[in-house]
Amino acid sequence: LDQPAPTDGLSRPPNWPLAAQVYRVMRVVYTRLSLAYVLVLLTVGLYFIYDDILALPRPNEGWAAAATVLATAFLSLKTNQTKAYLEGLNHVALLRRWEILTSLGGVLTSFAVLLLGGGVFPLVAANQVWVVINIARNYQLIKTLPETPLILAGLSRSDRQFDREVFRTVWQAAWRTGVGVLLTFGTFKLAQLQMTNLGDTAAKATFTTALRIMDTILDFSVSPLYGKLPRLASLYSQGNLGVFLGVARQSMQRTYWAFVGPVVGAAVVGQAGLALIGSKVAFPDLRFWALLGLASFLQRWGASHLQLYSLSNHIVWHKAGTGLAFIFGAVLLGSLPFVGIYAYPIAGLASAILFYIGYCLRHSYRQFGFRFWAYESTVALPPLLVLLLLVGWVWTGGQVAIAPAWVLEVWQGWGLLAGMKSGW
Known about the structure:
By secondary structure, the protein is mainly α. Helix content is about 80%, strand content about 0%. Helix 3 runs antiparallel to helix 4 and helix 10 runs parallel beside helix 15. The chain starts with 15 loop residues before the first helix and ends with a helix. The N terminus and C terminus are likely disordered.
């Protein structure tokens, strides 16, 4: 939204009328996408969960949970509109702080429901409540921003209509990103639905638990890089590649370690932690968890460079997503009959190694002048080495997890000691 840099060295204010037009187009587009999303959930989504709901001890509880998700689905996707607004105005840190708080609230509420013996519907309802809270909070943040009155003031009567010219300009880049995200996200979600239809109940529990924890870690770990994207875009547009390189290096380092640290930490204390809170759900098998962590890291590595490359305004998400989806789907279908749930991380590893990493890094390196060893030796390779050591250790029979029984004994001993002190 910045105006072209003046030659007199003075900065120019943002183009608020253009921002107002983009905001108007964005609201219309997200509303239509949200309606399409609800339609997909009503058809494809219900088709995949129909048999699982009927298999529940209390199917009515499952239908109530599905209805709750559908009721908040429209608002859930509309949240991306408010997120895009806040990120576009460079309030990423503010947005991430509130996202962390609401995510933490969702986790704590879910644990409380499990401890109280709640079923499927209370657990789903507890999560969806925080979705609504997050939406309401984002709208409240928008109202308090100093830029919002300037944007709303720029919405003249003519601007309040859908501006097709602005839409076409934005759409040239947006459709490529949208197709890429749809291919990758859609492929992963369809694969996950397929995996949850496996006959082995224990395998399904392991798979769903691992994905739930991994998704939380992935959402948390992107903040260091995504929070710096507005600054990186500004530095790139100014041609300040020296500072750009330093900020990109530091942001990626923090993102990778923010992912690897919780993955390794969960492998060590996850089983004991679930036992400590009395959860009936066991932590995933460590060999599966380590492979899933490695595959997720490799995909995050490629996605980080693809996100960085997109700052050049040359969008190739659709090509990257097509290659990843094709290889992932082929390997998953080919290996599923032989290795079961392990087909999911194996397909993730294959798609990342055979195509995704090379494609994304090549574009980023060429655009910004990176060199593999000079850049990645201090950025991606150290956390990657830690994950490889974890995979090698658990797959050769090594143990990294703290025994749940030991933790429970310590916890009970601590409670006994506390009781004795209070008695004294």
